[in-house]
Every structure is written in structure tokens, then in C-alpha cells.
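Running log. JK asked me to keep both predictions on one page so they can be read side by side. First protein, sequence followed by its C-alpha cells:
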Amino acid sequence: MPMSDSPLSRAILPEGWPTPRGYANGMVAQGRVLVTGGLVGWDEAGVFAKGFLPQLRQTLMNIKAVVEAGGASIEDIVRLTWYVTDIEAYRGSLKELGPIYREVMGRHFPAMAVVQVVALVEPDALVEIEATAVLAG
């Protein structure tokens, strides 16, 4: 899968390494940093979407909203850290997850990590994601 680069950032791929699918091994960027808190899959009223994939979609939409409110775009995101309460739900939904990710994030694949956690602060949350974006000057 191609990794998109913005004018301010580019993916890093060490020589001889296989091209990652759906993420970058590293990113280099220059500019102002915008960092989100851990965002979850609830709407503006605090109502959670039902199920892992609907919560994932809403979480990505929430990231997009915060990043855009900060004057950035999806392409300015250089890192996503995902926290999931059920890694098997994540692994078992990869086929369906890809189209949802691309619907919101396009074909922009920053550096990412996915970590299973015992619980999240919001009891109904199944996924929480932090984003880091780099904006011009």
C-alpha cells in the first residue's frame, strides 16, 4: 500500500525493509505540533456507537474533527496510538476495518501502534486513539 506524504512530512522506510501495509514505520516532519488527547467512539452528546467497528469509525471522525479544528488536515497526522480493550476484536475485523479507516483517513498511513489494555476510563469505550499532527510554521 502506498504511504502518503504531506509537504511537511514523509514516511521513513529503512533500506531493505519490507513496505508496511496500512502504517508507516516512522515519520519525519517539520512545523507546529498538534496533539489530541485519547479520543473515543462517542458523538457530540456523549453517546457511544454500538460495537467495535462503529466505535472505531466514530473515534476516527472525532480525531478528524479535532485535527481540523486545530487548523490541520488528516495528511498532517504523523502518529496514531490505538488502545483497544479486545485485541481479538481488532484482529478479527481487519478486513472490515480497512474500508472504515480509508473512508475517514483516506490513504494516509502515519506511524501507528495498537495496544491492548485492560480497560479504558470510559467504561463503554472499546477503542481510544491519540493523534499527533504537524502543521506548517
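And the second, directly underneath as requested:
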Amino acid sequence: MAKIILIMNQKGGVGKSNLCYNLSQNLSEHSKVAILDIDAQGSLSQLAKIVDSFQITTDENILTIDNNLDFIFIDTPPYLSSKLKGLIKIADLILVPTKAGILDLLAIDNTISIIKDELKENNTMIILNMVKANTTITEDILKNLDLHKINVAKTMISDLVAFTRSPLLKGVATDSNAQRQIDSLTKEVLTSLI
């Protein structure tokens, strides 16, 4: 049965879809991967015609059928929907990307609260995403995230153009720094699933 990785945060603009794409692309080299896009914006669904290394679908039946997949990533909308509780329950791992900003830190509280309500905090990892280089606020945000008692990924994903362009280039392999970051985060994700 496929490992289900839920990517969620009630805040928009934290890079959920881009992170979902890049982790899927990275894992698809050696695994069978699919993305379930339940975000009403449908950003990832629009890529389905040009992606050939993994599947992108809006059909939630993918979660219940035997499909010989190794991983199913679920990209969620930028708000807390009633559907999330059920997805949290079935998720093997919940990834909560956030930017290193004050408003992002405030918004993460509701996301963490719903995860804790479902007793899944031990299956959750916060990821600092779209991190600006040479800023001191990142350390301040990390200290505040510790208060949630949720695992924070050691790997931070920088705000690099390579991540933004990745759907057009089928990943970030052309940028060694971006590839190193996504490789490192992929290892953390896999380790969390063991």
C-alpha cells in the first residue's frame, strides 16, 4: 500500500504545491509516485499533461484502490476544510510548509491545532520553505516553532528561482544547490516514514 504524504497549511503562498511537485519529482526517479490535487486552484492538475514521471489526479479514489504506488502526495487548499480531518487520519506523514515570516508563524497555529486534535503530531514535520538568504528572522521563527513540539525539518528550502521553474524543467537538477536541498529534504521525509 502506498505511503500517504499530506501537505497542508491553512495559509496560502507558503509553497505547498511547489514543494509537493518537487518531492514527487525527486522520488519518482526510483519509485511509483502520484499526486492527488484537492486544491480548488488546481495548479498541479494543470501540469498533468506535461508530467510523465509521475501521475497527477483529482480522483480521490486513488487513496482506496490498489494501484501499486509507493507514494501518494496530497496537495491541499490554503484553508482548513472539513475534508482535512479525514485526510490527516489516513496520512502516514503530514508536511507543513511555512515561510519564515511573522504572519506565517501566526497562521500555522490553527494548522497545528487540527493535527493535534487528530493525535498526529508525531507524524508531522514542519518545513521552512522559500527561505530568504542572509536573514536573521529565520532563527527567530525556528525558536517559536519549537513551542509547538512538532518535528521541524533540518533542511530548509531556499527561495530559489530553480524551484519556481522546476515544473518546466522536470525538476531542479540543473541547479546543484536546489537539487542538494530537495535531496536532503527527501531523505528526511523517507526517514520519517520508516
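Observation for JK regarding the second prediction: Strands lie at 3-7, 33-37, 55-57, 71-75, 93-98, 124-128, 151-152.
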